[in-house]
Amino acid sequence: MMSFNHHNRWIMTPRANGAARLRLFCLPHAGGGASTYHTWAGLLPPDVEVCAVQLPGRETRISEPPMTDLPSLVEALAGALLPCLDRPFALFGHSMGALLGFELARVLEAQGLRAERLFVSAHRAPHLPDRDEPISTLPEPDFLNEIRRLNGTPPEVLADDELRALVLPVLRADFAMIEAYTYREGEPLSSPITALGGLADGSVTREELEAWGAHTRAGFVVRMFPGDHFYIQSARPLLMQIIARELLLG
Protein backbone atom coordinates (compact mmCIF):
# COMPACT_ATOMS: atom_id res chain seq x y z
CA MET A 1 0.00 0.00 0.00
CA MET A 2 1.25 3.46 -0.82
CA SER A 3 1.48 6.12 1.84
CA PHE A 4 1.52 9.87 1.71
CA ASN A 5 4.95 11.37 1.68
CA HIS A 6 5.49 13.19 4.95
CA HIS A 7 6.05 16.44 3.06
CA ASN A 8 2.62 16.94 1.44
CA ARG A 9 -0.44 15.43 -0.21
CA TRP A 10 1.05 15.72 -3.72
CA ILE A 11 3.46 12.83 -3.31
CA MET A 12 2.91 9.19 -2.44
CA THR A 13 5.75 6.77 -1.81
CA PRO A 14 5.22 3.04 -2.39
CA ARG A 15 8.34 2.35 -0.33
CA ALA A 16 9.75 5.25 1.65
CA ASN A 17 13.55 5.24 1.73
CA GLY A 18 15.26 8.03 3.63
CA ALA A 19 18.67 6.74 2.50
CA ALA A 20 17.84 6.75 -1.20
CA ARG A 21 20.51 8.02 -3.60
CA LEU A 22 17.90 9.47 -5.95
CA ARG A 23 14.19 10.26 -6.03
CA LEU A 24 12.19 9.46 -9.16
CA PHE A 25 9.07 11.62 -9.42
CA CYS A 26 6.43 9.95 -11.60
CA LEU A 27 3.70 11.99 -13.26
CA PRO A 28 0.45 10.38 -14.45
CA HIS A 29 -1.41 10.20 -17.74
CA ALA A 30 -4.77 11.91 -18.25
CA GLY A 31 -7.21 10.63 -15.65
CA GLY A 32 -4.46 8.67 -13.92
CA GLY A 33 -3.35 8.75 -10.32
CA ALA A 34 -0.40 7.80 -8.17
CA SER A 35 -1.51 4.15 -8.12
CA THR A 36 -0.21 3.85 -11.71
CA TYR A 37 3.26 3.57 -10.19
CA HIS A 38 2.54 1.50 -7.08
CA THR A 39 4.60 -1.52 -8.26
CA TRP A 40 7.62 0.41 -9.47
CA ALA A 41 9.47 0.59 -6.16
CA GLY A 42 9.83 -3.19 -6.09
CA LEU A 43 11.19 -3.29 -9.65
CA LEU A 44 13.79 -0.51 -9.47
CA PRO A 45 17.09 -0.51 -7.55
CA PRO A 46 16.68 -0.05 -3.77
CA ASP A 47 18.62 3.22 -3.82
CA VAL A 48 15.91 4.81 -6.01
CA GLU A 49 12.89 6.14 -4.10
CA VAL A 50 9.78 6.19 -6.28
CA CYS A 51 7.66 9.27 -5.56
CA ALA A 52 4.31 9.05 -7.35
CA VAL A 53 2.65 12.40 -7.93
CA GLN A 54 -1.00 12.62 -6.91
CA LEU A 55 -2.81 15.38 -8.77
CA PRO A 56 -6.02 17.00 -7.48
CA GLY A 57 -9.30 15.32 -8.39
CA ARG A 58 -8.29 11.65 -8.29
CA GLU A 59 -7.85 8.76 -5.87
CA THR A 60 -6.85 10.14 -2.45
CA ARG A 61 -7.60 13.70 -3.65
CA ILE A 62 -10.92 12.93 -5.33
CA SER A 63 -12.75 15.55 -3.24
CA GLU A 64 -10.64 18.32 -4.81
CA PRO A 65 -11.51 19.83 -8.18
CA PRO A 66 -9.04 18.93 -10.96
CA MET A 67 -6.87 21.75 -12.23
CA THR A 68 -7.41 22.78 -15.84
CA ASP A 69 -4.55 25.23 -16.45
CA LEU A 70 -1.24 23.50 -17.07
CA PRO A 71 1.09 26.40 -16.11
CA SER A 72 -0.79 26.86 -12.81
CA LEU A 73 -0.63 23.13 -12.12
CA VAL A 74 3.11 23.04 -12.82
CA GLU A 75 3.77 26.02 -10.55
CA ALA A 76 1.78 24.41 -7.72
CA LEU A 77 3.55 21.10 -8.25
CA ALA A 78 6.99 22.71 -8.30
CA GLY A 79 6.28 24.36 -4.97
CA ALA A 80 5.05 21.08 -3.50
CA LEU A 81 8.18 19.23 -4.63
CA LEU A 82 10.71 21.72 -3.28
CA PRO A 83 11.00 20.11 0.19
CA CYS A 84 11.75 16.78 -1.50
CA LEU A 85 14.57 18.04 -3.70
CA ASP A 86 17.25 17.71 -1.05
CA ARG A 87 19.01 15.00 -3.08
CA PRO A 88 19.40 14.11 -6.77
CA PHE A 89 16.12 13.59 -8.59
CA ALA A 90 14.74 12.50 -11.93
CA LEU A 91 11.34 12.94 -13.57
CA PHE A 92 9.19 10.42 -15.41
CA GLY A 93 5.97 11.40 -17.16
CA HIS A 94 3.63 9.27 -19.26
CA SER A 95 1.44 10.85 -21.96
CA MET A 96 0.00 13.98 -20.28
CA GLY A 97 2.65 13.43 -17.61
CA ALA A 98 5.38 13.91 -20.21
CA LEU A 99 4.19 17.48 -20.82
CA LEU A 100 3.94 18.08 -17.08
CA GLY A 101 7.42 16.66 -16.55
CA PHE A 102 8.92 18.81 -19.28
CA GLU A 103 7.38 22.04 -18.01
CA LEU A 104 8.21 21.08 -14.42
CA ALA A 105 11.85 20.50 -15.40
CA ARG A 106 11.92 23.97 -16.98
CA VAL A 107 10.47 25.66 -13.89
CA LEU A 108 12.85 23.82 -11.55
CA GLU A 109 15.87 24.49 -13.74
CA ALA A 110 15.04 28.21 -13.68
CA GLN A 111 15.37 27.91 -9.89
CA GLY A 112 18.76 26.22 -10.16
CA LEU A 113 17.42 22.67 -9.66
CA ARG A 114 18.49 20.29 -12.42
CA ALA A 115 16.90 16.87 -12.92
CA GLU A 116 19.40 14.06 -13.38
CA ARG A 117 17.23 12.82 -16.25
CA LEU A 118 13.84 13.53 -17.77
CA PHE A 119 11.89 10.52 -19.05
CA VAL A 120 9.12 11.50 -21.49
CA SER A 121 6.79 8.67 -22.43
CA ALA A 122 4.18 8.31 -25.18
CA HIS A 123 3.89 11.97 -26.10
CA ARG A 124 5.10 13.96 -29.08
CA ALA A 125 7.72 16.67 -28.51
CA PRO A 126 6.00 19.78 -27.12
CA HIS A 127 6.77 22.06 -30.06
CA LEU A 128 5.02 19.78 -32.55
CA PRO A 129 1.38 20.41 -33.53
CA ASP A 130 -1.27 18.09 -32.18
CA ARG A 131 -2.42 15.71 -34.92
CA ASP A 132 -5.51 14.62 -32.98
CA GLU A 133 -8.89 16.30 -32.95
CA PRO A 134 -9.95 17.71 -29.55
CA ILE A 135 -12.05 15.27 -27.55
CA SER A 136 -12.67 17.01 -24.22
CA THR A 137 -16.06 18.43 -25.25
CA LEU A 138 -17.38 15.41 -27.16
CA PRO A 139 -20.75 13.92 -26.16
CA GLU A 140 -20.30 11.17 -23.61
CA PRO A 141 -20.65 8.18 -25.99
CA ASP A 142 -18.03 9.60 -28.37
CA PHE A 143 -15.75 10.62 -25.51
CA LEU A 144 -15.97 7.12 -24.04
CA ASN A 145 -15.07 5.60 -27.41
CA GLU A 146 -11.91 7.73 -27.53
CA ILE A 147 -10.98 6.77 -23.96
CA ARG A 148 -11.47 3.10 -24.77
CA ARG A 149 -9.31 3.46 -27.88
CA LEU A 150 -6.42 4.76 -25.79
CA ASN A 151 -6.70 1.64 -23.60
CA GLY A 152 -5.59 3.31 -20.38
CA THR A 153 -8.75 3.19 -18.26
CA PRO A 154 -9.85 -0.25 -17.01
CA PRO A 155 -12.98 -1.41 -18.91
CA GLU A 156 -14.67 -2.32 -15.63
CA VAL A 157 -14.37 1.30 -14.50
CA LEU A 158 -16.01 2.61 -17.66
CA ALA A 159 -18.74 -0.05 -17.43
CA ASP A 160 -19.73 0.89 -13.86
CA ASP A 161 -22.11 3.86 -13.68
CA GLU A 162 -20.81 5.16 -10.33
CA LEU A 163 -17.12 4.78 -11.16
CA ARG A 164 -17.62 6.27 -14.60
CA ALA A 165 -19.30 9.30 -13.05
CA LEU A 166 -16.21 9.80 -10.88
CA VAL A 167 -13.53 9.45 -13.56
CA LEU A 168 -15.11 11.16 -16.58
CA PRO A 169 -14.97 14.73 -15.18
CA VAL A 170 -11.27 14.27 -14.37
CA LEU A 171 -10.58 12.83 -17.81
CA ARG A 172 -12.39 15.70 -19.50
CA ALA A 173 -10.52 18.26 -17.40
CA ASP A 174 -7.16 16.66 -18.18
CA PHE A 175 -7.83 16.48 -21.91
CA ALA A 176 -9.04 20.09 -21.90
CA MET A 177 -5.78 21.08 -20.21
CA ILE A 178 -3.70 19.19 -22.77
CA GLU A 179 -5.66 20.61 -25.69
CA ALA A 180 -5.17 24.16 -24.40
CA TYR A 181 -1.40 23.71 -23.97
CA THR A 182 0.75 26.19 -25.86
CA TYR A 183 4.47 25.60 -26.21
CA ARG A 184 6.66 28.54 -25.21
CA GLU A 185 10.11 28.95 -26.76
CA GLY A 186 12.94 28.54 -24.30
CA GLU A 187 16.48 27.33 -23.79
CA PRO A 188 17.04 23.57 -24.04
CA LEU A 189 17.26 21.77 -20.72
CA SER A 190 20.58 20.88 -19.18
CA SER A 191 19.09 17.51 -18.16
CA PRO A 192 19.46 14.54 -20.51
CA ILE A 193 16.18 13.29 -21.96
CA THR A 194 15.05 9.75 -22.62
CA ALA A 195 12.00 9.53 -24.90
CA LEU A 196 10.01 6.31 -24.62
CA GLY A 197 7.21 4.85 -26.70
CA GLY A 198 5.20 1.81 -27.71
CA LEU A 199 5.88 0.24 -31.10
CA ALA A 200 2.13 -0.19 -31.68
CA ASP A 201 1.11 3.25 -30.40
CA GLY A 202 -0.91 4.81 -33.19
CA SER A 203 -1.07 8.20 -31.50
CA VAL A 204 2.69 8.91 -31.24
CA THR A 205 5.28 8.12 -33.91
CA ARG A 206 8.97 7.46 -33.38
CA GLU A 207 9.72 10.65 -35.31
CA GLU A 208 7.59 12.63 -32.88
CA LEU A 209 9.55 11.08 -30.00
CA GLU A 210 12.89 11.79 -31.68
CA ALA A 211 11.92 15.47 -31.86
CA TRP A 212 12.34 15.66 -28.07
CA GLY A 213 16.08 15.81 -28.76
CA ALA A 214 15.73 19.51 -29.57
CA HIS A 215 14.85 20.21 -25.94
CA THR A 216 18.10 19.18 -24.27
CA ARG A 217 21.71 20.24 -24.56
CA ALA A 218 22.75 17.07 -22.73
CA GLY A 219 22.34 13.44 -23.79
CA PHE A 220 19.30 12.18 -25.66
CA VAL A 221 18.05 8.71 -26.57
CA VAL A 222 14.82 7.10 -27.81
CA ARG A 223 13.71 3.72 -26.46
CA MET A 224 10.85 1.75 -28.04
CA PHE A 225 8.91 -1.07 -26.41
CA PRO A 226 6.43 -3.72 -27.51
CA GLY A 227 2.90 -2.49 -26.86
CA ASP A 228 0.48 0.35 -27.53
CA HIS A 229 0.02 3.75 -25.88
CA PHE A 230 0.03 2.02 -22.49
CA TYR A 231 3.09 -0.14 -23.04
CA ILE A 232 4.13 0.98 -19.54
CA GLN A 233 1.75 -1.70 -18.27
CA SER A 234 2.36 -4.50 -20.76
CA ALA A 235 6.14 -4.01 -21.02
CA ARG A 236 6.75 -2.97 -17.42
CA PRO A 237 9.69 -5.31 -16.58
CA LEU A 238 11.66 -4.21 -19.65
CA LEU A 239 10.80 -0.58 -18.98
CA MET A 240 12.10 -0.88 -15.42
CA GLN A 241 15.38 -2.31 -16.71
CA ILE A 242 15.82 0.62 -19.08
CA ILE A 243 14.96 3.23 -16.43
CA ALA A 244 17.36 1.63 -13.94
CA ARG A 245 20.16 1.62 -16.51
CA GLU A 246 19.55 5.22 -17.58
CA LEU A 247 19.49 6.42 -13.97
CA LEU A 248 22.77 4.61 -13.34
CA LEU A 249 24.31 6.43 -16.29
CA GLY A 250 23.08 9.77 -14.91
Radius of gyration over alpha carbons?
17 Å
> Which stretches are low in confidence, meaning pLDDT under 50 for 5 or more residues running?
1-7
- Average the pLDDT over all residues and give the rounded result: 92
Strand content: 15-25%
Q: What overall form do the CA principal axes indicate? A: globular
Q: What is the CA-CA span between the terminal residues?
A: 29 Å
What is the helix/strand order?
EEEEHEHEHHHEHEHH
Alpha plus pi helix count: 8
Helix % is 25-40%
Strand order of the largest sheet: 1-2-4-3-5-6-7-8
Structural class, please? alpha/beta
Q: How many β-strand stretches? A: 8
The main pleated sheet reads as: 8 strands, mixed
How would you describe the overall organization of this protein?
The protein is an alpha/beta fold and 250 residues long. 34% of the residues lie in helices and 16% in strands. It has helices at 70-81, 96-110, 140-150, 155-159, 161-179, 206-210, 231-234, 236-249, and strands at residues 3-4, 11-13, 22-27, 48-53, 89-94, 118-121, 193-198, 220-225. It has an 8-stranded mixed sheet. The longest helix is centred in the C-terminal third of the chain and has 19 residues, at 161-179. The two termini are 29 Å apart. The relative contact order is 0.15.
